[in-house]
Each structure stands twice: as structure tokens, then as C-alpha cells.
Amino acid sequence: GPEAGESLAALRHNAAAFAVLTETARRAWAEKRFAVAFLPDHGCHEIDGGCGSHGLDMPEDMNIVHFYGFSAPR
Could you read off the pLDDT of 17-53 as tens digits, one per residue? Predict the structure, then answer.
């Protein structure tokens, strides 16, 4: 399901990969302006049998968090 250890570990892995990409961009583009974004495309919730699902007309699927960052030349 979406809150199982394996699922949460995958989320942590994705967040760590985003952090690495962001830091790599900061080093490579130190003299440029740029934006980074972590944009999940849908929410997820537990349904019958403890499995995850998405795509319903409900807050868990429509209220998602996006993360943005901006950088300017140093």
C-alpha cells in the first residue's frame, strides 16, 4: 500500500535523488538563473485490500504538494 515501508522508502529515494540533481544543477549552472521543481502528478490513497490507487474525485487525489526552487548567479 501507499504507506507501506517499501512505498515510503521509494519516496525517500526519490526525494534524495531530487536533492542530488538540485545540487548538481547549482554547481553546473552557478553563473545562470534556473528553477527546479518536484512535481508529483497525482495523490495516492489506500483502498480495498490495502493497495494504493489514484484518480478519484477526492482530496487525497487532487490536493498534491509541489516543491519549487529558484537560483540566481552567485
Answer: 999 999 999 999 999 999 999 998 777 777 767 677 6
Indicate yes or no: pTM above 0.85.
Answer: no
| Closest to 25 (Cα-Cα) out of 15, 16, 35 | 35
Q: How many CB atoms neighbour CB 39 within 10 A?
A: 9
Cell numbers for 21: 540533481
Q: Domain total for the chain? A: 1
**Which CA distances in Å does 58 have to 1, 22, 47, 72?**
18, 32, 13, 38
Domain residues for the domain of 34 are 5-71
Q: Which residue has the cell 538540485?
A: 22
Residue with cell 487525497: 60
